[in-house]
């Protein structure tokens, strides 16, 4: 963020807090935007300037911030029992009730819940569960993982190794390499020249088949994929892709792991996107973010009795030696239950379908602006890709940091949109109104125009 402040907290932040994804160089000069208050989609910084947060925190403040009801629920649970040991045979009421609720909402036969502390640990758990399951069923060779370039799955060692975003693969970090394979990014905008969407889909399906043939289905444990890629550029894969890959996974005895950390809990108008948008019934689902709308940290890895029965039967001494002190944290689970109740009571899923159509339609008008190469996404998960040349789709030099340039301009006009290199990404609270949509699109459009003029 570009705003230079001087308060004691701002100085403390700059001096002592090393943030996730710190860009050492710019942080040294600019520091952070110090936020102090939030209500709905509105944020205030410590100087009292207000912003519309079209990013929804980090794809997570689904019901909007500052709700009294959430504060009450959280306070009540803290008074009642702020913590409970989740290991082995100890439990707590909110975690048990939430597991039941998630089993009701999840697609297909998914009905088991393993709690973690966020999206990365939900993915890490899914990765370990795949190993555990394949070993238990006597298929220890099935350890290879397929994922996609452009996919983002978090920042534990395993999650970042599964991640396929080249920009996040920093050479100073190490990654698991020999058993994780990244297939092409299913981005229709960047399909090889001359291919239409259907041909591109066939190409991706063929590539998947070839990879299975090359490695051998008996060596592949799982395929990890976001139904719509999020921070890799809000990429809706070509029509039919998710379902065809799922069918191939079923034919080849490969577990389909849907990373719904962003797409679940209403972001695209459904509890889970896999089945409702794409007709896929995953074997394993990871979720976090919108599960508590960011009020408290919580993640979950969901799977079915099909997997549970395999890992739970056989060797009597076997146990699932995985989990966290804060798995099934009662306060986080109570917050998640209330969050889900609010989404249901306020019909936020239908609202996202309705207002999301308007958001898509209004954002598409930005295509007329210079710099805008693509406007894409689904409902409340949208993105603008900026390019140097709309015909060739050639990008501007990375060093220009065009996304940040535009986001900084937007921020000066009270709008927060997330820059990711060439992109400006949006994932607003599900409560966003049509009037808010107009504000977001107008301010973003103005920021793009302003930036274009800056560059001349
Ligand atoms: N999976 C996806 C699709 C994500 O977008 C993210 C975070 O943005 C994660 C996993 C990691 O979640 P967390 O940051 O809560 O660990």
TrEMBL record:
Q: Which cofactor does it need?
A: pyridoxal 5'-phosphate
Pfam families cross-referenced by the UniProt entry: Aminotran_3 (PF00202)
Against InterPro entries, the record matches this protein to: Aminotrans_3, Aminotrans_3_PPA_site, PyrdxlP-dep_Trfase, PyrdxlP-dep_Trfase_major, PyrdxlP-dep_Trfase_small
Q: Which domain of life is it from?
A: Bacteria
Q: Which PROSITE patterns match?
A: AA_TRANSFER_CLASS_3
Keyword list, A-Z: Aminotransferase, Pyridoxal phosphate, Transferase
* SUPFAM superfamilies, alphabetized: PLP-dependent transferases (SSF53383)
Membership in a protein family: Belongs to the class-III pyridoxal-phosphate-dependent aminotransferase family.
State what protein this is by name. Aspartate aminotransferase family protein
């Amino acid at each position: 963020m570009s705003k230079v402040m001087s308060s004691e907290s701002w100085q403390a932040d700059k001096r002592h807090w090393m943030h996730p994804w710190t860009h050492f160089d710019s942080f040294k000069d600019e520091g952070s935007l110090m936020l102090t208050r939030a209500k709905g989609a509105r944020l205030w910084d410590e100087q009292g300037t207000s912003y519309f947060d079209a990013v929804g925190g980090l794809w997570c403040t689904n019901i909007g911030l500052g709700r009294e009801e959430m504060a009450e629920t959280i306070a009540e649970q803290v008074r009642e029992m702020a913590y409970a040991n989740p290991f082995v045979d100890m439990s707590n009421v909110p975690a048990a009730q939430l597991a039941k609720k998630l089993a009701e909402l999840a697609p297909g036969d998914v009905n088991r819940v393993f709690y973690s502390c966020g999206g990365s640990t939900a993915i890490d758990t899914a990765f370990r569960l795949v190993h555990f399951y394949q070993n238990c069923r006597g298929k220890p060779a099935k350890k290879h993982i397929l994922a996609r370039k452009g996919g983002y799955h978090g920042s534990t060692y395993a999650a970042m190794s599964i991640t396929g975003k080249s920009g996040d693969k920093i050479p100073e970090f190490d990654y698991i390499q020999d058993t994780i394979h990244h297939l092409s990014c299913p981005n229709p905008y960047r399909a090889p020249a001359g291919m239409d969407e259907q041909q591109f889909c066939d190409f991706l399906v063929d590539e998947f088949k070839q990879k299975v043939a090359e490695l051998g289905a008996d060596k592949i444990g799982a395929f990890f994929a976001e139904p719509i890629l999020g921070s890799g550029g809000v990429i809706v894969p070509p029509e039919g892709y998710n379902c065809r890959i799922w069918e191939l996974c079923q034919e080849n005895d490969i577990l389909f792991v849907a990373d719904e950390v962003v797409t679940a809990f209403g972001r695209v108008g459904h509890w889970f996107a896999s089945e409702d948008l794409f007709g896929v019934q995953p074997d394993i689902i990871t979720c976090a973010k919108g599960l508590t709308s960011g009020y408290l940290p919580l993640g979950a890895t969901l799977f079915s009795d099909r997997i549970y029965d395999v890992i739970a039967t056989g060797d009597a001494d076997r146990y699932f030696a995985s989990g966290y002190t804060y798995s099934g944290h009662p306060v986080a689970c109570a917050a998640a239950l209330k969050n889900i109740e609010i989404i249901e009571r306020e019909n936020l899923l239908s609202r996202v379908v309705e207002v999301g159509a308007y958001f898509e339609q209004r954002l598409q008008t930005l295509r007329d602006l210079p710099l805008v190469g693509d406007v894409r996404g689904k409902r409340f998960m949208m993105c603008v890709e900026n390019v140097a040349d709309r015909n060739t789709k050639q990008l501007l030099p990375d060093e220009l940091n065009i996304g940040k340039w535009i986001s900084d301009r937007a921020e000066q006009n009270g709008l927060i949109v997330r820059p990711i290199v060439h992109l400006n990404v949006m994932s607003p609270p599900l409560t966003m109104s049509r009037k808010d949509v107009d504000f977001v699109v107008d301010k973003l459009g103005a920021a793009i125009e302003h930036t274009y003029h800056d560059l001349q």
